[in-house]
């Protein structure tokens, strides 16, 4: 664990898993449109959305995907983790009011590079709405020790 209670890369093992859940509210969709600038009518305009194959407004895909980011940042590997990549497949639309459960599972760990690959799956009830994989950089005890050594004043 690092100072912020995130796992160090040395602590990670394939198969470790964690979940973070969040309900995607109307307010989230409106605020995400504002924050991102993505004002796509399929998210905001009920009349337009009713004419689409979804029949009603749906959440931004990247809003739903952000629950994965929360799972990675808050749960596993936790605080200090840095995203290197995230693959996403949007399988089923998420509607306002749906609760998204983001499950992350460690697939592989590369201790020397302080990297890991995680399976990232979002479900609403039992339905998979997003699946993909994340590549992340993780804090490392070895790197912390090396930096602390470098910071020490040298004795002549
Ligand atoms: C600009 C930003 C906008 C947004 O954020 S929109 C919000 C995020 N997106 C979503 O919520 C979409 C969620 N996904 C869905 O609702 C469904 O998924 C679709 C409506 C897209 C497709 O459903 P169906 O018609 O039942 O698809 P099928 O019969 O399973 O597949 C038809 C072809 O489409 C490919 N496909 C389906 N989903 C995906 C995907 N997520 N990524 C890549 N390809 C996909 C399949 O493979 C197949 O292709 P082949 O005909 O060649 O076999």
Automatic annotation (TrEMBL):
This is 3-hydroxybutyryl-CoA dehydratase. Signal peptide: none annotated. One of its GO terms (biological process) is fatty acid biosynthetic process. Its EC number is 4.2.1.55. The lineage of its organism: Bacteria, Pseudomonadati, Pseudomonadota, Alphaproteobacteria, Sphingomonadales. Residues 21-114 form the MaoC-like domain. It comes from Sphingobium jiangsuense. Keywords: Lyase. It is an enzyme of class 4 (lyase). The keyword Ion transport does not apply. It comes from the Bacteria. GO terms for molecular function: (3R)-hydroxyacyl-[acyl-carrier-protein] dehydratase activity.
């Amino acid at each position: 664990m690092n100072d912020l209670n995130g796992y160090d890369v040395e602590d990670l093992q394939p198969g470790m898993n964690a979940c973070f859940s969040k309900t995607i509210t109307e307010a989230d969709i409106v605020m995400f449109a504002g924050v991102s600038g993505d004002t796509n009518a399929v998210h905001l305009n009920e009349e337009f959305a009713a004419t689409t194959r979804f029949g009603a407004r749906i959440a931004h895909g990247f809003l739903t995907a952000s629950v994965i980011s929360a799972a990675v940042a808050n749960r596993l590997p936790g605080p200090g983790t840095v995203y290197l990549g995230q693959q996403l497949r949007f399988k089923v639309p998420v509607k306002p009011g749906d609760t998204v459960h983001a499950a992350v599972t460690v697939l592989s760990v590369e201790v020397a590079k302080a990297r890991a690959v995680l399976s990232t799956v979002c479900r609403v009830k039992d339905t998979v709405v997003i699946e993909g994989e994340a590549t992340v950089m993780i804090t490392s005890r070895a790197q912390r020790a090396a930096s602390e050594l470098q910071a020490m004043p040298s004795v002549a």
